[in-house]
Structures are given as structure tokens and as C-alpha cells.
Amino acid sequence: MDLRGKTAIVCGSTQGIGKATAIQMAELGANIVLVARNEAKLNAVKNELSTAENQVHSYICADFAKPDALKTSIEQWISKGGNCHILVNNTGGPKGGPIKDAEVSEFYDAFTQHLICNHILVQALYPIMKTNGYGRIINVISTSVKQPLPNLGVSNTIRAAVANWSKTLATELAPFNITVNNVLPGATNTIRLQSIAETKSAKTNESVESIFEEMAAESPMGRIAEPEETANVIAFLASPAASYVNGINVPVDGGRTKSL
Predict the structure, then answer these.
(1) Is 154 strand, coil or helix?
(2) What ranges do the domains of the chain cover?
(3) Which of 46, 112, 117, 185 could form a disulfide with 64 if both were Cys (CB 3.0 to 4.6 A apart)?
(4) CA 221, 224, 225 angle in degrees (round to 5)?
């Protein structure tokens, strides 16, 4: 679990699981490149990261709703000598709701922000990983790829697409010592979970607190996760310790998912 000398690009890293991952990887010695759309928040998180191993941290300001701009930004960063050993694909999920009520545009938007942007980053960065002889691509998706979740129709659909893209990629990149794995968070104490609970509360008149209690009760552990608990698993998969772990889905849900 030593990331000294490694550079990790962490997407969606100004809050929640992405931020916790950036902090954890920095503590393990990695140089961190934060990616998100709010420059003020990127600066604030950058200043929180450990530099105990004389790391140099930086950021790329990019909006995953604009894939062409993302492609330009990552290519410019590479042209200036950007290096990469680890890529953490992570971005906020689509809004909740029954799939029968979803607008077609919701599927396009989610597909763009998740699969297309992930693919843009991988295509730009895997040649660098190949040259380095070390690559870790970790996609933060959802337990819905194993067990679709109620009232998250668009998310269930798009997450499954990302999971199959990832599994295919794992086979193709393995000969270059590049692994590709998915982390599947369960209910986690993030702004997104708060938003899902508030949306449900508005429709059902249940309190947000009772909705959180219901979510916690779904896990055998009787609680929801903290972002740091998912970040620890991501950091392991990014490390040399996980050198022969490839092409898998790792739920971090306290045992909530019923399937193996």
C-alpha cells in the first residue's frame, strides 16, 4: 500500500468519495491530479492534500457534461508533460426516479458523463501507463450492476454499460500491466445520497432522517458507509498490492447486495 512515485488522476474529487480518495492516496505518497468543474473547490481540496513525501499536487478544471472540452483539457495537460499511473473515474450519478418516467435526454446525458468521458480519459492516458509499465484504472459505479436499485432507472442502465465496458477493457489492457476494476459503493454518506433522500422525501412526505434510517437498515451492518471506507478500497486497487486483481466488481456496501 505504497503509492510513492505514482501520479493519480482522481475525478469528481472536490467532494464525497472522490475527495476522500484523493486524500487517502496523497497520504500513501501519490502525486494527485484533481479533476472537477469548480476551480475554487479544486484549489481548496488541493491545499488539504498531504505533501509529506514532497508530492506535487495539481488539478484540471473540466465539466463532464462537455466531453469535447474534457478531451481538449486532458490533451493539453499531457502535452505539458503530464504523467499518470492511476486513473479513478468518478462522477455524480443521474437523478433518481422510475425508468418509465425518464426523459430520453436523461439517458444521453448520463451516457455522456459516465461512459463517454471515462473512455476519453482512458484513451488519452493508457499509452502513458503502458510506457510506465504500471497502470490502474478504477471506475466508481454502483451496486446496481449486480442488483438494480428501485427508483434509479437511468443510473441502473448506464452503470451496467460502464461495467461491461470496463470488463472488456480489462482484458485488452492486462498484457501491458494495466488493471481495470470497478468499485461499487452502497449507500454512502455523500451529497448525492442526501439529494436522493430529499427527492424521495418530497414525493412521500417521509422525513429525510427516516429515509436514511431505512437505507441503513438495508445493510446487515445497520448503517450507511462513510466515503473514506470506499476510498480505502480504491486505494488498495490502485496499489502494487493489487497487482493481480483485474476485471472485477468490488461492492463496498456492508453486505447489502444479495448476489455473490
Answers:
(1) helix
(2) 7-186+226-252
(3) 117
(4) 100
The per-residue pLDDT string of the chain (260 residues; one tens digit each, 9 = 90 and over) reads 899 999 999 999 999 999 999 999 999 999 999 999 999 999 999 999 999 999 999 999 999 999 999 999 999 999 999 999 999 999 988 888 889 999 999 999 999 999 999 999 999 999 999 999 999 999 999 999 999 998 889 999 999 999 999 999 999 999 999 999 999 998 888 877 777 777 777 888 888 888 888 888 889 999 988 999 999 999 999 999 999 999 999 999 999 998 88
Of the candidate CATH numbers 3.40.50.300, 3.40.50.2300, 3.40.50.720, 3.60.15.10, the domain formed by 7-186+226-252 belongs to 3.40.50.720
The answer to whether 13 and 22 are in contact (CB under 8 A) is yes
Name the β-bridge partners of 36.
61
Where are any strands of DSSP class E within 65-209?
Answer: 86-89, 135-140, 178-185
Phi-psi region of 168 (alpha: psi -120 to 50; beta: other; left: phi over 0): alpha
* Strand duo 178-185 + 58-61: pairing: unpaired
Length of the chain: 260
Distance (Å, whole) CA 258 – CA 57 = 40
Please give the model's pTM, rounded to 2 decimal places: 0.93
Q: What angle, rounded to 10 degrees, do the helices at 208-217 and 191-204 form?
A: 110
Contacts of 170 (CB under 8 A, 6+ apart): 179, 180, 181, 246, 247
